[in-house]
Structure formats: C-alpha cells, structure tokens
Amino acid sequence: MPNKNYKLSAEFYDLLHKNEVESLAKKLVSHLYPYGIPEGSDILDLGCGTGTLLENIYSAKSRFLGIDLAPEMIDIAIKKYQHIEFIAMDMCAVNLKRSFDLILCTNDAINYLIPESRVLLFELIANHLKNNGSCYIDFDTETDIVGCWDGQISYNEGNGWQVTRSSFYDAAKRIGIERQNWIVIEDGELKKITEIHNLYPLSPKEVTELAEKFGMFVEYFIEPSQFIRLEDSFESYLRLGCLLRI
After folding, report:
1. What is the spatial distance between Cα 205 and Cα 215, in angstroms, rounded to a whole number?
2. pLDDT of 143-191, one tens digit each?
3. What angle do CA 14, 16, 18 make, to 5 degrees?
4. DSSP assignment string, 165-204
C-alpha cells in the first residue's frame, strides 16, 4: 500500500473519499451506538488514512487511536486532528498492550494485505479486542475483484487535482490491480504521478474462518452502502461489511 508518491496525493485523499467516509461514520455510530458512543470507550482505527473517520465519530469523553502505514497520511492526520492520537506503523505489527471496545478496519484496507498478513491482522484484532467489544471490517469481495474489475475506469477531479482510476484482475497472481493516474498542482507546478494499488480478493467464508481461528465469530454481515444487516446469501455482493465479536 505505501507509495513514494503518497507525499503528493495524500493531501487530496480526503477530497476523494470524504463523502463516503462521513456517510460511513454516521451509519456506523447509529447502527452500533444508537444512543451515542458510551463514555470512556477506547476505539482503534486500523488503516486510518488521514483520520477523517475518527474525527467524524469523535467524542471528547472517549479515547481514539488511528494507525496507518503511510507516514504521509499520518502527518496530515496529526496536523488536522491534534485531539486524536495517531501512529505511523504497520497495522499487522501492532502490540499496544491495551484493549479496545471498538476496532475499525474500513475503506477496504484489509484487501491491501497479502493473504498471509490477513492472519496476522485477525490475530492482532483478537488480542486487542475487549471481551464485550466489537470489530467492524469492510472489504471488496472476491465476486467484485475477480468478476467485475477488468475494464473499470473512473474519473474524479477537484481544485488542483484530478485522478483517473483503471483496474484489471491478474488471474495468475489472484490480484486486483488499480492504477491511479494523478495530475496535481503543487506550488504552482503541474505534476503527473501514478500509484499502483494491489488488492487481494476476499470472500465471506475466508473472513469467517479467520475470525474463528482466533476465537472470534462473525455476528453478521452488512451491506455497507446502506448499512443493512444481511441474512441471505452473500456471494452476489461486490462489497461487504461485517461485525466481529469474541
């Protein structure tokens, strides 16, 4: 996931994802905490990016920690939200020696992990989750990456930036590849940069098995755009969320 060009594109990250992150924050809190986040809660965001999700669920009476591998993202988060703690580190190597009421891993961050690292992530979650705590993860499904990625192209632009994202699936390596071609203006200079994002397919079955491997269970899966609890087959969904408990 880290990329030498993040120094340029990180500042536009919020503009690209702002609406979806704000929407997720509202739905997440209303779904899990209809009466508000309980006072004194400890909340951890793995793959926090520039901290927007934590800021949107922030309460002064609870403790929040965001972790991301990209120092450029964390630098921006620290500058924007000085009332929240952020650490730049590998989320699969975390040993915080504290536990959390809620652990988040959103925006398909888990798809960036190679399958071997997913095992480490689920072990980490199990080791840091309180007995009555919850973990919310969302992910791009195998159905989407394997079946729908080839030929997808999207375009976004804003003040001082534009990005074209194209994707395809490498069946031999079982990797979904998204190429992001950025044009940004920095200090009056036009710069063109390219980021390559490798995402690994993930199925509901794999999530369930990984959770059970470390003494957790999937309480239920969620359709993340509407945050609706699912009771039927999950194989047709392109993205899913799920709630884990111990």
Report:
1. 16
2. 999 999 999 999 999 888 899 999 999 999 999 999 999 998 888 899 8
3. 50
4. EEEEEETTTTEEEEEEEEEEEETTEEEEEEEEEEE--B-H
CATH number of the 144-199 domain: 2.20.25.110
Crossing angle for the helix pair 115-128 and 204-213, to the nearest 10 degrees: 50
- For residue 2, pLDDT beyond 60: no
Q: Residue 238 corresponds to which tokens in the numbers above?
A: 């392109």
pTM of the entire structure? Answer: 0.94
CATH 3.40.50.150 location in the chain:
6-141+202-245
CB 135 within 8 A of CB 243: yes
3: confidence class by pLDDT, cuts 50, 70, 90: very low
Tokens linked to 91: 């989320």
Dist. CA 49–CA 46, nearest whole Å: 9
Alpha carbons 145 and 168: distance in angstroms, whole number: 8
Count of positions (residues) in the chain: 246
Q: Which of 126, 127, 86, 117 is nearest to 202 (CA)?
A: 117
pLDDT range class, residue 7, cuts 50, 70, 90: low
pLDDT at residue 210 is higher than 90: yes
Q: Which residue has the higher pLDDT, 221 or 188?
A: 221
CATH 2.20.25.110 location in the chain: 144-199
CATH topology for the 6-141+202-245 domain: Rossmann fold (3.40.50)
